[in-house]
Structure formats: structure tokens, C-alpha cells
Amino acid sequence: MATSLDAFKSNQEKQTIDASRKVRIGIIGTGWIAGSHMDSYLKQPDVEIVAGADIIPGKAEAFFKKYGLDNVKCYPSGEAMVNDKSLKLDAVSVCTYNRQHAPCAIQALNAGLHVLLEKPFTVTTEEAVEVMRAEKKSGKILSIGFQPRLDDNMKMVKAICESGVLGKIYYIQTGGGRRRGIPTPFGTSFIEDKTAGLGALADIGCYSLDMVLNAIGYPKPLTVSGYKSAYFGTDPNYSNYVATGHPEYAKLFGVDDFAAAFVRLKGGIILDFRIAWAMNMDTSGDTLIYGTKGGLRIPSTECWNGSIGGDLTIYHEVAGKQVETKIPMIHDRPGAPSNFDKKIRSFVDACKNGGEAPVPSSQILYNQAILDAIAQSSEKGREVKIVIPEI
Q1: Residue 190: Cβ within 10 Å count
Q2: Among 44, 4, 53, which residue's Cα sits nearest to residue 24?
Q3: What is the distance between the alpha carbons of residues 129 and 122, in angstroms, rounded to a whole number?
Q4: Model pLDDT, residue 294
Q5: Domain 11-148+339-359 in CATH: superfamily?
């Protein structure tokens, strides 16, 4: 296993970039996550930020001024920006709230631009399908913002699952959660139904699903029996509301702060999932992958941080004895790019070289279908079958 570890570590070496050809980028939505995009784009010598859009008057201008980019052209909507051919845009980052992901991505694709779409993909499966139809028609790159899969530890999880050491994988327990962590420091866009559509499910649930589904090759989801609740988000006495002086947020809360599901996947695999923004527990448990030859334990993190919480452990038999093999957690070298930087870099490379999307929509469609089905199953009080329309 040492050779594999060395191979993963070598991926952290600095990449040589041809800065003679610039990729012209526009940013749609200039809220909190847009700042992370900007920080990473500004590290790329072959990127030029030329435009931005936000529906709140003056917000885009203030955003770019903070970065010292006074020459960036600002627009009152993403549609107005992507349709301005004088900008000669190559690509856009869509950083809006969840319910605007689909329309903004479709407008950009229809305008002939590559798109880096923040997670979650969309709110509903139908929206995701519409975006993919626009992607197919345009022939452009659509990559979804799942930077944790670019983490070297996540790559190791996938390598272990693909190696055959676990045998046939038949059951997975995964999820994550925060003891107190409803995201309201930047207002209510994460918690209102009119902007978010989904809560903890979309915010961090999509990541934990991607961790295991990507590791096992993204098998098609078949059925879901789901549950969601909002006991903490709708309580004006919730500690973070009190601490920040916003008990009124309880009345605005319209999404889930906890969800769980039993998902059947193609190939006879069962997925036991749970996710929380707030709970009276320190963890919802480690991720466990059960196989016929071995099992894999992935330690949980206190709050989803895009990596793992410690060394991996494989439980298997050697020479008739039950043993545990530790796979040491890979730590970034000083100065190594962050997972978010890797996401931006991989997208820029794909735009320049005409390669495949770093995180393809064809995979994340299944992720989105599970999130949507959990919400539907909870509302209907029964198991639902996943049906994905033709693209």
C-alpha cells in the first residue's frame, strides 16, 4: 500500500501552467461561496475575471471592489451577463442560491459557455435533467462543485473500493452532521424554502453521498424510503439563533435540518444514510463500507470538511486470522493547493483543453435524484421509486 500512498502524495506537486492563453470568467451570484471561487481564480495565472452579476443592486460592484477589480463589468442578472457577447466569455461560475442553479446554468449553456455549477446540482431531479439537456445541446462542459472528491484521502477510499480487497460491496452506512451548525451567518438564503428548497440534505448531504457513490462507481439508485425533520431550525430558542440575536429566523425556516434514508442501489447494494445540521449527538457515526472480503471504516469529522476524520481501517482476514489494516491519513504538504483550488484548476484545464468535466453531471444526477427522493418519500410517508426522465 506504500506505493499507492506515494502516488497520491506525488499529485500534490506544483503544476506547470501555460499563462499565454487566458480563460475569461464571469461569476453569477456574488454571495459567500463566490468569495471562495474568487480566491481560487485569482491564484490561476491563466484566468481573467471579466464580469459578474447579482440581482441585489450594488452587491456585485461591492464584491469586486473588495478584490481590487474595478474594471469588472457588473450586471443585474446572470442572463444579461451571459448574453453580452462583447465580453467574449469562456465560462461562468454559478454561485447563486439553490433554486437559481438550474435557470442560471441553462442560460449560460444556451449562450455557449462552460459552466462550473456550485453544489447541490439543483433542487429537483427534473431541474437537473433540464440542465443536462441544455448541456447536451450546447456541447459545453458542465462540472458540479464537489471538491471533496479531489482530496487525496477520498481518492484513496475510491482506490480501496476499486482494488477488490473488500470483495463485493453490499451495504454502506454514511452521513455526517453538526451538533449545532445551521448556516445562518450570511442571512437566510440557506434556510428559506424560496431560496434553498432543501436544507442539510443539499448543503452537506450531497457531499457524504458523493464520497461513497463515487467510490463504488455511482450505481443507479432504485428506491428510497426517506425521512426529514426541522425540530431545531423552527425553534426560536435554538442556541445559535439566540447567540446571534435572530430568533425570527425560526419562522423563516422552511427546509430540513435532519434527514435519513434507506436507499436501494443497482447491484444489490443498500445505502443507510443520515445527515444533520443540528442534533443532540456528537456524531452520526463513521462511514462503514461492508464487503464480502473486507470492510472499510472511514472516521467521521466534527463538521463536514471535505476530507476524513483520521486513518482508514480495513477489516479483513489474512491466513485465516481476523486482522485490521490501517491506511494512514494523507496530510497536505505545506503550500499544497486546497481541494477548492483543485476544483477551480481542474475546471479551467477542462475549459482550455476540451477535456471531460472534472465532476460530470451524469454522476451527480444520481446524487440529486436521491436527495429529491428523500424529500418526496418523507412528504408521502412511504417508499418511492426513482424514475429519471430521458435526456
Answers
A1: 24
A2: 44
A3: 9
A4: 98
A5: NAD(P)-binding Rossmann-like Domain (3.40.50.720)
Q: At what angle do helices 32-41 and 59-66 cross, to 10 degrees?
A: 40
Specify the length of the chain in residues: 391
**pTM (two decimals):** 0.94
Looking at the chain, the whole-number percentage of residues with pLDDT higher than 70 is 96
Do 152 and 5 touch, CB atoms closer than 8 A? no
Q: What is the pLDDT of residue 14?
A: 62
- Average pLDDT over the chain, rounded to whole? 95
Question: What are the backbone dihedrals phi and psi of residue 106, each rounded to the nearest 5 degrees, phi first?
Answer: -65, -45
Encode 66-102: b = buried (16+ Cβ within 10 Å), e = exposed: eeeeeebbbbeebbebbebeebebbbbbbbbbbbbbb
Q: What would the mean pLDDT of 313-331 be, rounded to a whole number?
A: 97
The per-residue pLDDT for 20 is 85
pLDDT exceeds cutoff 90 at 19: no
State the Cα–Cα distance between residues 51 and 71, nearest whole angstrom: 9
Q: Which fold has domain 149-335+368-378?
A: Dihydrodipicolinate Reductase; domain 2 (3.30.360)
Q: CA-based diameter of the chain, in Å?
A: 70
Q: Is 42 exposed, middle or buried (0-12, 13-18, 19+ CB in 10 A)?
A: middle
Owner of C-alpha cell 462503514: 288
Q: Which residues contact 166 (CB under 8 A, 6 or more apart)?
A: 160, 289, 291, 292, 293, 294, 295, 296, 314, 316
Cell of 138: 450546447
- Give the number of other Cβ atoms within 10 Å of residue 334's Cβ: 5
pLDDT band for position 5 (cuts 50, 70, 90): very low
Q: What pLDDT does 10 receive?
A: 45
Q: What sign has the CA pseudo-torsion 78, 139, 33, 276?
A: positive
Q: Delimit the domains of the chain by residue range.
A: 11-148+339-359, 149-335+368-378
335: left (phi over 0), alpha (psi -120 to 50) or beta: left
Q: Alpha-carbon distance 337 to 329, whole Å?
A: 17
3-state helix, strand, coil in the chain (%, to 5): 35, 25, 40
**What is the identity of the amino acid at 272?**
D
CA distances for 180 relative to 82, 234, 301, 303, 307, angstroms: 39, 14, 14, 10, 20
